[in-house]
Structure formats: C-alpha cells, structure tokens
Records
---
Amino acid sequence: MKPIFISYTSRGRANAERLRSALKDEGIETWVDRDFIEPGESWESALQSRLREASAVVFLIGPDGQVSEQQRSEATVVFRSEWEEQPKLPLIPVVIGNPELPPFLQEIQAIRVDDVRQGWPEAATRIKQALSGARSAVSKPPSSGESEQKARLLEIQQFADFLRESPAKEKFAR
Amino acid sequence: MAAPRFEQSVFINCPFDPAYETLLHAIVLTTVSLGFIPRCALEAGDADYRFPHILELLTKSKYSIHDLSRFTGEGAANLARMNMPLELGVAIGLKLSRKKHRWAVMVPTAPVDPQAGQAAFEYQRYISDLAGKDPLRHEQTPESVVREVYSWLKTLDEVVNPQPGGPAIVAALPAFQRKIADSKDNALGKSIWADILTAALEAAPKVNA
C-alpha cells in the first residue's frame, strides 16, 4: 500500500505520532509535513507532488473540532489535486471524541477515537480496512444540501435586488 | 436586507480591465455556487470607487481573494498598479489585528508577457514577503481560476454543504457569460454588478436533493 499523508494541528502532534506508530504496526508507511519539506522550500508544491504518490490523506481532528490554518491549506492542496488525479484521493477524518467537523469533512465517514491512549490500533485497523475495500467505504451517502444552497442563493438574490433598487442607500447606509 | 452577512461575504480584489474580465467572472460564479456573496468595488457602480468604500467592503467581509496578476509595469510610463497589493496589505492587517478575516492571494503561473518567459514562481521575486505562504496559482484561464478559488473556498466553515462539483461550475461558465452579455446589452453596454450577481445565481450549478 502506498503511504498515507497525515494532516494534524501542532497541538495534535503527540496523537499524530501515536497514529503513525499504530499504522506502522499495520505495515502502512506514513508522511507528515516535516518528513519531506525542507526549510525555505515551497511546502505546497512539495505536498502536491507527494500527494501523487499517496494512497490517502488522514485529517486528525482534536476534541474541539478545530482545524488549523495549516490543515485548511493542506486541504486546499488536496482539493486542487482532485482536478488532476482520478480517482480522487480518499480523505479520512480521524476524530478524537465527537465534535462537529468542518464542512469539508462532514460528507466523509469519520473514524472516531474515544480513548487517546489505547484507541490508535483500532483506528489504524479501520483505516487499513477502509483503504483495502472500495474507496466509497470512506464516503457517507450524500446529504441533501439543496435547501441550504437554495437559501443561500435567495440571500444573494435579495442583495442583488437591493443593489439594483437603491445603490445610493447601499453605499451610505451601511 | 441592508447588507450581506459578514461570514458569507468574500471581498474580491482583482484587476477590472477587459483582459481580466473572464477571470473575474470565474471567481464570481465559483463564489456564488459555493454559497458565498462576492463583494467588490464594482458594486457601487462608477460613482464610488473610493478607497474608504473599499476599506468598508473589506472590513465587512470575513474572506478576501487578491489577484496580483498586474504586477508588471504597463503603458509608456511603465507603471505597475499598486491598488491590489495595497488592499492585500489591509486584509493582512485585519487578520493581524485579531479580527476574523482570512485571505488568499492568487498569482499567474503562465507568463503575463510571453516574451518575458516562465512566471511559475516569479511571485517569489515580486512579493518575497509572502515566502512560506504559497499563493493560489492559476494559468490565466477561467478553468484554472475556478479550480483555485473552488479549492480554497471549499475549506471554509461557511461553504454550502454539500457543494456542486468544480467541473460543473466550469461547465456553467459559458451560460454565465451569455447571461452577462445579455444583461450588458440591456443596460446599453454597461456592466452592472447586481446583474452579474443575478446571472451567477441563474447559472450556478444546483445541488441535487
């Protein structure tokens, strides 16, 4: 199996190491940013080229559900790579506890870790199972976003109407 | 409705010249398709293209996108346009002042001037202070602009969920351009921001239930 890239926050570094160790026990090689990015190097370019050799990207999310700026940038690189690489690289959220996930991970089946001391071997096994099965194994059935998008588009229409009808008011009243 | 929600607003700082127009439209369609409201100086029409107005739009937007495509000198005097770097600086200042603001910089990778050669990493020379924060890099095509803006907006907390696919947005671009052309004809050749927003709403690929 090709290596897995692990994206984590600085606060999650110890857990990232635990997960790496558990995945190594499963025979899976892993990368994290500091493995291949030299000081002064364009890390996005380095990551983008490495992703071509990866089998998946794991987003390690802490109990607060927060995503770091670095993780968002890594997600941007992953989404950009989807335009070139087919099939898409699987994203696997590995989540400590049960926080609400950022939208870009909500449509993906997450692997939950309840015990940060002993839960990593099971998480590693589930990652391996997910990757050895169909890639769809890590995707949730799509939820209905029609009403949310419809509501957003309606708000934009209202703003466009407002601009059209009273541009002077829009300029000075805000 | 007095103004769009802060969390949903994306300030667009880019060239407004005819050569960039199709790229601006690519940004607008992508932004609208993902449930955000694009805001820029054009929304005030010709009447209020003042820096205070731009500052107000920036501070009322949680997000901003800054395209530094016009970094070379232009015209007989060989002058570069400094407005875009200036507004980028304001956005960075907003972020540093602990206000909720996130910004993205876009740069061209294809040479702006083919005679000048490859430009893939030229930004490292003309804005070296960005070292360590890689910009979004497009090839000065609408498709590549959609790809970059989509990949960035998709990571934001307020993105509509689920989202239409990026290729569907690219596929919707020709219809969007036609709608803009129609509305421009109806406005005696003038581009009206509200009409561009409406055209984007109509052309945006819809998420199926």
Note: Chain B touches chain A through 53 residues (CB under 8 Å).
---
Amino acid sequence: MSPDIVSQIIHHLFSIQTMVALVVGVVGGILVGSLPGLSATMAIALLIPITFGMDPVAGLTMLTAIYTAAMYGGSISAILIHTPGTPASAATSLDGYQMTLKGQGAKAIGISTISSMIGGMLSALALLFLAPPLSKVSLMFSAPEYFLIAIFGLTIIGSLASKSMIKGLTAGVIGLLIGAIGVDILTGYPRFTFGFPALETGVSLVPAMIGLFSLSQVMIQAENRGKNQGKKKALNIEGKVLPTWAEFKGIFATIIRSSGIGTFVGMLPGAGADIGSWVSYNEAKRFSKHKEKFGKGHIEGVAAPEAANNAVSGGALIPLLTLGIPGSAATAVLLGGLMIQGLIPGRELFTTHADITYSVIFGFIIANILMGIIGLLGAKYFVKVSVVSDAILAPIIITLCVVGSYAINNNVFDIWVMIIFGFIGYFIRKTGFHPAPIILGMVLGPIAERGFRQSVLMAKGDLLGFYFSRPITVVLMILVLIALFSPMIMNWWVKKGAGNFEESKSDGDVADNPAK
Amino acid sequence: MINRIHQDVVIGFIFILVSILLYMKTFDFMGEAAIYPRALIVFMIVFASLIIYSGLKKTKQLKEGHEVKYEGEEGPLTPSLLKSPFITLLIVGVYAGLLSVIGFFPATILFVIAFLWFMGVKKWKVYVLTSLGLNLFIYLLFVVQLNVHLPLGILFE
Amino acid sequence: MFQSILAVLLFLTTLVGCSTQDTATSSANPSEGPGSSQKIDYPTKPIKLIVSYAAGGGTDTGARMLTSYLEKELGVPVVVENKPGGSGWIGWGELAKAKTDGYTIGYVNAPAIFAGYIKPDSNRKENLESFEFIINHVVDVGVIAVRSDDNRFSTINDLIEYAKTNELTTSASGVGTENHLAALQLNEKLGTKLTSVQFGGTAESLTGVMGGHVDVLMAKVGEVMQAEKEGKLKILAVAKGERAAQFPDVPTIKEAVGADVEFYSLRGIAGPKGMDPLIVEKLQTAFENAMKNPEHVQKMSDLGLAIDGTKGEEYLQVLKDEEAIMLDFKDELGW
C-alpha cells in the first residue's frame, strides 16, 4: 500500500459520515442480531436501499458492521433467554443458557464478546493480508468436499447435548428428515410439502429454530405459572463480565481454532455461519480436556461458536471481494450493495478502487473492536433482561418470535411453522431429546445429500476414482473416519494402557493427534 | 397408576407410526428423490425401536417398584403439568390466526393483555407499559426502520 | 470455408433484421406513448411492487434500481415487497390474486414462472392467463463458458464436437431452469452428451466451473463479465439471437453451430388479470420513461443486463414462445 492510499483511507474512514455509519451499524447490528428472526442477512437486505445515497465507504462499512455485530448480537439472547437471535448462535445457547442458570450470565456475555471480537478481528486480518491466495481455496471446494464436511459435522450428533446416545441420534435423523422437506433440487420433485407452496423451498430454518428453542422455552416456563414468581430471580446476576486470566488462557486455543474454522467455512460458498459455529462447537468438544462439562455451562462451549460465527463474516467477504462469489447468504446480499455502488468485485477492487476497498476492510476491523467495547460495557445491562419476571418476559418473547418469523419471508405461514416447531420442541425436550441435533440435521442434511448426488454426476460414472483423485476429499475422508472411530480407539487405549499415563494427559494427547 | 408404561415406549411408537406414514408418502416421489428420505426413515425406525426397547426396560423397573430418574428438562408428562403449556400454545395459535384478520398491532395488544392476565399479572401499569412499549418498539424498528410490511389484516386491506 | 461464409451471411441478416426491427419498435413507441387522451385518476397512493425473490438478489437489485426513477414518473412511492419462496410462486400467487386496481404489481421472471404450473404435481390453477403483462424490464442473456485454462476447447464448435463423443458436465440452477433446458436442447438438436449438475445458485456454479469441478458453465452475461475480464473464464458462445454488447467477439450459438438454441431470462412487470387498460397504459408509459433514464441504462449495463421494453401483447407472445419450449421438454424433465 502506498502512502497515498493510506492517507486516502484515513480520509475516508475518519469522515463524520463513516464514523456515524460505524456506530449505527454496530449498535443496530447488535440489536437486530439479538432479536429472534431478524438475521444479519435480512438487516443488510433491508438497509441496502438506505445506502444508495451514502458515500460508498460509509455505506459499505455500515453494512459490514451490521453483519459482524448481528453475529455477535445473536449470542446475547441465546445466552440470557435461550432464544438464539440468529441461526449462527443456536450452538451458543447450549452452554450459554446453562451459564445464565448458574448465575454466570454476565460472564457468558463477556466471553462471547471477547471471542466474537477476536474471531472477527482474525478473519478481518485474513481478509486484509491473505484475500487473494485464500480465494483460491474457495475454488478448491465443490460437491464432494461439501458432502464430506457435512458428514464430518454430523459425526458428533449422537453425543451432542443429549444424555442418551440413541435419543441424540434420533433427534439428528428427525432434523435430517425435516431438511429433506421441499423441492429436491436434482429432480425438481417436491418432497413432503403436503401441497403447501411455502414448503417448496424447505422449512425455513429461522422460524423452526425459534419454535424449537424459544417457544418451547416459554412453554416449559409456563409449567411453573403462579409458582415461585420472582423467586428464581434471586440468582446472583452481578457476576463479573471479564473472565479471569486463567479462564482466558483456557479458552485461548479454542478461540484461535474456532476463528480459523470460521474463516475457512466462511470462504466456502456452500456453507455459512450456522455451519461454522456448529463445526467449531464440535471441534472444541473433541479437543477439550473437559468434554463432560459441555452442555452444562462450560465457557469453551460459548467461546467456540461465537469466535467462529464472527470469523465467518470476515471469511465470507474474501471470495466476495476477490471473485464476486459470496461466501454466505449475508454476503450474497452484500454483493447487491456493492453492485449498486458501482463496485464490481474482482481484481479491480484491489487496484482501481483500492482506496475504497481497503477503507471498508479497515472499517470492518474497527467495527469489530467497537462491537467488543460496546458489548463489554453493555453486558451488565443486557443481563438485567434475565431479572425481568417470566410473566412479563414471556409475552414479549412470543411477540418477537411471531414478528421475527413473519419478517423473514413476509409470510404468515412461517408463524405457523414456528408454532408447530414450538409444540414439537416442547415434547421432545420433555422426553429427553434436545433441539440442537435437530437444527444440526436441518442445516447439514441438505448439504450432505445434494453434495453427494452432485458429486455422482460430476464423477461421470467413476465415483470412487473421482473421490480418491481429489486430495482434499481424501483428507476429509480420513478426518471423518477418525471422528467416527476415535472414541472407540480412545476407549481401548485408555483401558489398555491407562497405567502408563495420567488419565487426563492421555486423553488430551489422543484427542490432539488427529489434527497433526 | 401401578401399571403405567414409561413414556419412552409411547414416544417410540409415535415415531414409528409417523415413519410409516412418511414412508408411504415416498411412493409418489420421482425416482432418485425418494432414496435419501427412505434411508433416513429406515434409520428412524431402527432408532425408535431401540427407544421402545429401553422404554420397556424402564417400564419393567417401574413395575418392580423402582424409581426411574428423569434428568434435566425431561419429566413425566402428566395432564396437570401439560395444562399451562398447552393453554400457552393455544393463546399463541389464536394470536397467529387473529393477526391475519384484524392486523398485527391490534392482535398484538390483545395477545399481550391476554397473556399477562394468564400469567397472573395484577398491576395495570404492567399491562399498559408492556403492550404499548412493545408495539411502539416493533413499529419503530420493523415498520419505520426496516420497512417490513406487517399484516394489516383482511378487514383493513 | 463455405460454412463460415454462410455463418457470416446468417449473422449479417440477423443483424439487419434486428436493427430494422429495433427502429420499427422505437419509432412506433413515441407515437403511442402520449396518445392517451382519456384521463384517469391514478395513481393516488403508494404502489406495491412484489418481488418474488429475496431482497438483495438479482431481481430485487434491478427492481430497486428502477423504483426511484419510476417514483418520479408516477408521483407516488413505489414500495418493493419481497415475497420469496415456493420457487417464486409465493409472490406470483399473491400477485395473481391481488386487486386489479393497479396498486399491486410485481416482477414476473420467465422461464422460472412456467415450471410452477407445468409440473404435473403442482396443482396450480394460475398460469400465464392469470396475469396482465405490462412491460418487460430486462433481458438477462445466457452465455456458455469454460475455464480459461481448459485447453480442450477454444471455440463453441470444439466443445460441441467433443461433447458428441464424451460426457461433459454443465452447471444448471435447478430443474427446468433456462440453463438446464438449454443443455437438454443442445443434446436433442446436436446429439451432445451434456449432463446438468444442479446447483443451488450462481455462486456455486461459478466455483464449480472456475475450480475445475464442472466442465461447462451456463450462466448470464452479468455473472461472468468480471471473471472474463480477469481471464478466469473463456466465453464460447452467447445464447441469444444477437451478440451481446459486452462480448462483441463472441458468436451466438446459432451462428457458430447452426442450432437454434437460446437461453435467457426475462424480468418484467405484470399485474393481476383484468386491470383497467388505461391503468396498464399509464404504467407502461411510466415504466418506459423510467427505463430509458440514461443513469438507469448505464447502471444496468454495468451489471450486464439489457433493458428491454417489450410491452403488452408482444410481451405475452414472447412468454408464450418460451412456455412452448418448456412444454416440449416435459418428458425429459420427468414431468
């Protein structure tokens, strides 16, 4: 970068319009993200017309700020009221809400904020320094790789947030079946749509998730109607926001790993923040020395998905800016925003329009820092939500669920989807299942099926030869095999040779090996 | 209730029943489109059978007078427990139905009032503040800021 | 040699044919435009413009780029309302059932709209007869491209010859979409062995071809412009009657291989059937003027989109011709 460009960037960034856009974007993004149903994608889409009249740097900085802040905002409601604000924070609700129940809501928010900030920053740095070489990576992934990534993500389904392995697997299969609803893209045949045109594009993830997590939560709380009103809120909510140094050191590796996973998943056009956060959660659990603590309010379980979903935002910008190929749904919408400003993605963005592009990237970095500051300062106030009595909170949550489900597609049908999933969610939760594997199945199922069938066509008859001729595919197949069989091998290892090691040490070593 | 059956058995049978119905539905599907859902349904039936099996074991324990532990959110579904959650669902259903008839904002005000009353809130201030505050917030954010067209209701369209 | 002369001749005649047609329509338009002497009190309140795809997509972006100019013409706000889902039919179904007062109009995308009622299991009552076709906004012209380092093909003829004996994979964006139908048509007319791999969207198709996972890209001008400029893709043919302004050196399929295979999509404005002809006329004039705005034309051409402007009956006829192609391929599609 020449000094000339640097001065232009400073000029662009420190204009009043850009600064206002940044603050509005971050605050608005956190708000939008924390409300169920209002996703980053939607907020960007709905605000693009407003950016028409703005200076390109200010407009685009606002949109990217909303993107990353909404990813973070989703965690606040996931942690405090078990209502993931965006699909990307569904994984956060597993451990985050448990922490709130233990009175550590503030700390959970603190960890989520720090992880989100670091995740976003690292991905922004990757975008700044490595965009051109990394964009080649996005081109190396296609159907067979997507199929295997999805399978890899599904390997954890049995042990995810469920006491019984069979019930976990069953919930996963339910999710996969729900994911099969809609027009089969390879034959054009509508499956299980029961004559509803709205189901042709599948069950919308957002209303389904809101129903499974939030409405079912309200129903569970309604069981205690009239009993111990206000009493349960005697919990200590004044806890510290910042984690201790020891805790931070404990989650540091998780944050870095998850940021890497998030950035990488973000770069893939076929996978977005929801997948990034689940894969990171799974990997955090796989690598953790305290696997048993996951799902019971473990800080690693909050740090992993949050670092990842913010890292996705930077990762998804890489192929968007370099190739014009959006890495996620939100960036697909951002593409429209770029085009309207007359910025056609590609090499020209980094040459002819370098001043604008680099200003937006720096703006994105600042947005992540600002988000961290606002989040840490605000955590104490956010937590107050959990002292509001259930009686008042319940109708507010339901109304927001209803308006959020409607707004995602401007369709009343989705409100009914939300209610039906609320009903399902309540029953499965009361009978020892968990909604998390269902969501995971819904997200990964279509990718797995489509990826596999597309790869059959791409292979032109020689499927095995095709898979084994692709180095990345081979690596992924090995990873899947390790994921499937490592628990068995580990059991055998521990039983056979436990005497030679301290138990915790051998656990860690074996779990670390697959990555090497 | 001495002869009660553990709820896992019932759940397992419900899953199998739904699986069979869905499997029948796949006969209309065109060629390749049916393979994946059918495979999933087969898995579903296997898992549901295992759930029934473990449920039967638990039922046996119950009959022998042992307590079967429920962990976390899991709990025996009894009519008295289900009453409040079901009324909740019913109110939400009425709300959803109403908002396409009388419009989003009137329906929301009615819903909030009805729900607060159902939850046993007595202070009138809470009613006023919650319903007005919530509607104002949604109006400002969704309608003014984000240009979402909330349903006006068939009466006003 | 003889063939190439023939191709050039063919090309010249199409060029001449088109240009005369162009002047004919453009000279006819102004005389029609202000000819409406009858007055109606329309519009007096905001007009709802339904877009059957999500905000931020191609149709939505194009619509939002037009509305600001349209608002100036009509003097009332034009509000874009996204109704995604059901392969577009959530929005189209609503449009067909809307009041005919002219305050609800919407974008209709062809050939995407046909699939929704030609599919036997769709049980949909609506079809082309359910709409009043006002004016076509843009034509999104299709292209056939390959990776620039794919040494097997340097022309479309190479590709067709190769595909007659070897299986090649092509990108498509759904069963019955224009690029899928084009591959089927090529197979039928030229005996090629093209297999369409269905992708979820253009992003996946582009990575599929640019990453070397799929052989042939079937996409739209706007989607490949930048990649072509940077030398990542070779455009082999344009799938429309005339060459594309963005790629003047690239032949059309017809001039290169002689087969009459076209694929493109149309995004136009329609309302529910039974609108007052005066309102339709007023809308046509307003849209026409808005579409001619030089700023708008420039922005659309930057995106690789051609402004069209075919109106009323003529527009309906174009759609009917497209519909016929899809009906021809019902069996191949498995419908």
Note: Chain C has 13 helices and ten strands.
